[in-house]
Each structure stands twice: as C-alpha cells, then as structure tokens.
Amino acid sequence: MERSYASRSSGELATAASGSGRPVRVIPLRHPPGFGSISSSPPWWRAAVGRARSMGPLEWAEAALPCVAWMRKYRWKEDLQADLAAGITVGVMLVPQAMSYAKLAGLHPIYGLYTGFIPLFVYAIFGSSRQLAVGPVALVSLLVSNVLGGIVNSSSELYTELAILLAFMVGILECLMGLLRLGWLIRFISHSVISGFTTASAIVIGLSQIKYFLGYSVTRSSKIIPLIESIIAGADQVGEIPQGLPKFSIPRGFEHVILLMPTAVLITGVAILESVGIAKALAAKNGYELDSNKELFGLGIANICGSLFSAYPATGSFSRSAVNHESGAKTGLSGIIMGIIIGGALMFMTPLFTDIPQCALAAIVISAVTGLVDYEEAIFLWGIDKKDFFLWAITFITTLVFGIEIGVLVGVGFSLAFVIHESANPHIAVLGRLPGTTVYRNTLQYPEAYTYNGIVVVRIDAPIYFANISYIKDRLREYELNLPNSNRGLDVGRVYFVILEMSPVTYIDSSAVQALKDLHQEYKARHIQIAIANPNRQVHLLLSRSGIIDLIGDGWCFVRVHDAVQVCLQHVQTSSSSALKLASQASGDSADSISTLKAEKQCLKQDGFFKNLWKAHDGNSDSGGEVQPLLRQNLV
C-alpha cells in the first residue's frame, strides 16, 4: 500500500523535518491583516468619498478646471513669450489645415475653421494637457465623410447638420467615458492595429485628394478599389467663404442618432488612441502628470461646446501638437492664442481664402498624412513578433479593401482574440534550483537549474480564473504523467509533491477555487500533496476564506519555494531512511536471502517511493543480497 502525504500541521512538519538529523529552517507564512474578517478592502465609492472629503478648495478648483493648475503657477516673463511663439506658429499652420480637413470631410471649408475655433478655447479651460493642439484632423474627417456620404448627399444641408450632430454625440460619449473612468477599455487595442489602421487610412486619404490635381471628380470612398477605378476613369468648385464668427445653434437631426452611433463610438476610440496617447507622451516630456479620464472629459466638453457653434468632431492633432511642443509651448495659453488667430481669420481674412486653389488645400492634406504611413513599423514587427505583424497586416489590408469601419472591427476583433487566447492559456513554468543558491527559475530559461525527483515546482504567471483554470489543470496533469527529467534526490518513479509558486498570481475567482478543491481531491486519491508558496495578501486571504488552506493543510503554505522544497525533501529522506532501517534489520542473516527479500518486499510495499526499486530487483531475484547496494545507490 502506498504511503499517503495528507495534510499535516506545522508541528508535525517541524517534527518530520528534525527527525532526519538535519533541521530545516522554514520562514512562517503569516496570515494577512484582517484574516477571518468578512470585509476586505473598502469599496471604491467609499475611497472616492474619503478622497473628496480630504480635498481643499484649491484642489476642488483644479479638479473642476484643470487650467487652474497652470494658471496659478504661470511665470509671465518666462512662459508668455514661449506660449505666444508656439500659439502663433500653430495657429498659422491651423488655418489652411482646418479648411483642407473640412473639404476632406465633405464639408464647406468654413466648418473646418469653426472646428478650430470654439473647441480650442474650451479645451484650454477643461483639458489637462498643456501642449495638445485640438481641432480638425485628417482621420476623423475621413470617417465623417465615409459615414455621412452613405446616408445623404454632401451638397445637402442635412449632411452638414449630421456632421455637427456627430460632434455632439462624440462629446457626450467622451464625457461619459471620462466620468465613468472607462478610458482603460481602449488598452485592448494593440499598437499594431493602430499602426496598420492609420497607415491604410493615410493612403486612402491621399488618394481621395488626387482629384484636385487631376482636374476631374473622384469617387468619395474609404475603400481603395473604388478610388483607383474613379481616378483611372477620369470622369470642381472654388466657392465663397462666409465672413464672421459662428453663431450659437442647437444641433439638429436627432432622428439619425442610432444610425450615427457606431461612427461616434469609432471617433471616440480614435480620440482616445490619438489624443490621450499624444497628451500622455507630451506630459511625460514636460514633467507633469496627466489623468487620461480628465483628458477625455475635457475633449468631450470641447466637442459639445463646438457642436453648439457649428463644429464637426475635433480631437488632438499629432502633427500640430508636435509643432506646439517643439515651438516651446508651456501652458494651455498657447491653445487660446491659436483660437484667437482662427477668430481673426474668420472675421477679417475669409475673403482672401476664396482664391486659394483647391489643389493647394489637397496638397496640405497629403503632406499631413504622409507621416502617418508607418511602413517602418511593419518591418520592425516582422523582425520582432510575427503575431503583431499579422495584426498590422490584417488591419492594413482590410482597411484598404473593405473600408475604415470594417478594418477597425477586424483589427480590434483579432486584437481581442489574441488577448483572450493569452489570458486563457497563461504561461506556466517548471522551476528548478540554480546551483549554489536558493533561487528557483524556469528550467527552460536556465537549463543548469536542477530539479528533485518526486517534486514538481510550478509557477503560474497569470491570475487564475474561470477562463484559464481548465488549461492550468491540464498542464498540471501533464507534468504529473510526463515526469520532468530530474537530477537530484531519490528516484521515486513519479510525482508525490506539487508546489505552486503563486507570487505572479494577482487574483483568484470562485471558479478557480472550486477547481483547486477538485484538484486537491484528485491528488489526495493519488497520494500527492499540494504545497503553496508565496501567495500575495489578497490571494492568501481568499484561499483561507474559501477553505483551500484548511484542505491542503496550513503547514503546507510557505513564504519561499525553497522552504517548500526542503520540507518535501525531508519527507522523502525520512521515508527512505525508515525503509533502509527495516531492510537492514531483516538482512541480519545474509545467508537467508529468502527472508531478506521478504522483509525488503514488505518494506517496499509500505512506502510507494520504492516501487521502482522492487521492479528493478524482480529481474535479479537469484542474486540474493544485492538489494541493499541497489537501495543505497538510489539514495545517493
């Protein structure tokens, strides 16, 4: 009958350890503070209330109006000159860009100037970035054109109304995401998808502007094939630009909200990806912190207010923000100066814009989007990670062939599929001890690390929850059946101890708890003991409350993997010493080989560690007294 290593108390483990002649020093694993209590960490709303109560008037003002943070520390002599230079530089750059992007969106050029006017002032007050240049951008303009062109003719008044309504919807979504702190959702879209999407979009945008150079009309589309066909087939207007500031008006066309919702969500996603990403990078370069949720709220307020003054969706521009930063902008005052320049252009300069050739505006668009063609990223991904290159390629191709919406959906779908696959199939490593240390590392990464017979140390590099627990159990069974090549300790023929190194495990859910209980029962039936090493506070607390610690035994929880291994080795040595003692007593009369074999056989039956030795000896039953040397050889 095999020996069973069921759960034992800490005292019994200490006795077992000292019984072998060499004591093992085990660092006790303490229960986390608050063990046994029902409540854990305070709920998020209570923490938020606590923070709100601790805030003073000035902190409340900064939370409501982020501009207060830079206004109260403004250095007039140092900062004003830099903000003026940056604001004037980017403002002059924005005037022709705004008109060009409005044409790209299928709108009259004046709406590009409107979009670069009110949102700039509003964002300077509510936005948290001090260098981000807000206004019309090429990618959003293309999205507006692509969606609205399929609903109504661009020459109709409804087209303009829907573009303005889209700005209102985008602003609402951005505000909601900022208030509900949902900016983290966009993290599931990989950089590869963004790069492939923007590269394909830049090509589509460039081709859409060729008509202004060729002198004939080109089909408005976000797909590459209709554009090329229209250019080859070879099947334009310089109109007046109204003078004056935009008037206040409520957006109309709310009956089309449901139809526009997917595009509003997509534009909101682009705003998060582009604007928040740029804003965070600029904040890091300029030495201040930026809250992405506050940034989203600021962009949302800018779009809502902009829609009340005939603006279409605005977001942060990569090119203008880069110029703003390089020009030395220190605060949001540079954005206010940009708005003043646009306002001056609207009031006094629009008659001059009438004679600007449309090919000049098209050249501005093409020049702006050329930098978005990121073929170097594809080359880099091919050499580094084929999976990311696949994401880039599939997004790029589908965006070119099937349009922006399909391209984004396919790219995001594959990105989420990869995330789910990685989460459901986490990395699991078998650990071995580095020679001369008490450090245990992945045996694949460190081939020189050695393992012990009968003991498997497994590290799970992910949270354990319902989606991956089946995979983890399958891998553990695989390690049990396919015994890893071990090179230390007694050759016991199979696994008797499974040590789970849980330091990377940040979370365990109820499904995983039940699965661990089932796994314990399976192991117990096969005389295998589970040990847990180095769980964090939350995981340890959950394992204790769920009864897992009681099932496996409190004495089988350790601070270090090395402690767990040493205790398991002591069990192996104690069992092997008892077996040798019985064998030597029965072999006192070396001439009586039959009684020796019977005694040793009885000993081997009592301890499962020596089954393999008995099988090895069965073939040499006539050799009599050769069992003891075989035992000693395997114990070395």
From TrEMBL:
Subcellular location: Membrane
CDD domains: STAS_SulP_like_sulfate_transporter
PROSITE patterns cross-referenced by the UniProt entry: SLC26A (PS01130), STAS (PS50801)
Domain of life where this protein originates: Eukaryota
SUPFAM superfamilies, sorted: SpoIIaa-like (SSF52091)
Record keywords, A-Z: Membrane, Transmembrane, Transmembrane helix, Transport
Domain named STAS: residues: 445-568
GO cellular component annotations of the record: membrane
Membrane topology: Multi-pass membrane protein
Entry protein name: STAS domain-containing protein
Species of the source: Urochloa decumbens
Lineage: Eukaryota, Viridiplantae, Streptophyta, Embryophyta, Tracheophyta
